[in-house]
Amino acid sequence: MKKAILIFVLIVLLAACGSQKVVNNLKLVQTVGFDMSEKGVRTVAIIADYEEGKSNLEYYLTESNSVFDSLPRLRTKLDFPNEYGQLRMALFGEAFARKGIRSVTDTMIRHPVISSRMQIGVADREALDILRVMKNKKDPYFLFDMIENNIKNGNLPLMNLHITLFNFYGEGRDVFLPYFTVEDEEIKIDGLGLFKGDQFKTHINIREAFLLKLLLGSSRNGSLMIPVKGAKPQSGDYFLMNSIRAKSNLKVTNLGPPASVSIQLKLRVTVKDAPEWMDLSSETQLDSLEQTIETYLEEEISRFVSQCQKNQVDPVGFGDLIRSKSQHWDARQFASQYEDLQTTVDVKGTISHTGASQ
Predict the structure, then answer these.
(1) What is the pLDDT of residues 277-298, one digit of tens each?
(2) Which of 28, 177, 299, 326 is such that its CA lies 20 to 30 A from the CA of 49?
């Protein structure tokens, strides 16, 4: 019996050593980028080479007339097999995204080892330009971590490959992705790219991304600079509003046409970095600020929805909401009437804290 146990332990240890050897002999693709090229598609794959506790990023470029062939061509430049189980980020150049990203997302769906939690983004230029700037970070997951940080602590709404596919294949919804640029030789998330179908249509800034985050349901964090009338006549100042918790409730009030939707938003916020003339210990001042927040957000949300209607994009999912209440909803009919959709916005804001300095 003891011999049998000893043999079993040795087999497990040998198997573990063998597995380690296999892992060390793999090239793990961690970030990919897609751009248009003269041949059709240019793909860049980023693989981290870890040596003595240091990470160096290796860039491999391939060109093909099809996305389906671009990544397989990568193995012709590698000395070990390439795998995609650690892939966490795919970035599309704007020109590529305007042509359509479905060929890539469909490939990812069919790949069993690619996580549905991976992130997708669009650049305001070629993806390769953004990824080259990332090389100095020596972190293959830098863009992925940027997105996750700004979802958790900033103005970006929740998103990943799973949510992107849900918005793409779901009726009455449109895709939104983080939009990257370069500022002072540093990579920056500059809001969101909005899509119609699988094609990039327009871009919204980081302030408008926060409005979308509020509209999409329960959310935490995010900040907004809000204008307020100054102490002097005809002067203006701003204060920084940080969201603690927000909850939205969208209801169909009329199936139309034109359809009508009421938007009710409740949020709890803190006020920081206010002008010196503000007395945040005053209940009267706080009541006034709450009214300022409510009025400002009602106007900005209405403006944002109108902007989406003009661009024929529906990142909020108004079409899906109306479809859920109608037995005769038709996608084409809704699209033709989308610009006439009527919305009313009601915001209730509560200031919880005003900062330690107050």
Answers:
(1) 877 778 888 888 899 999 999 9
(2) 177
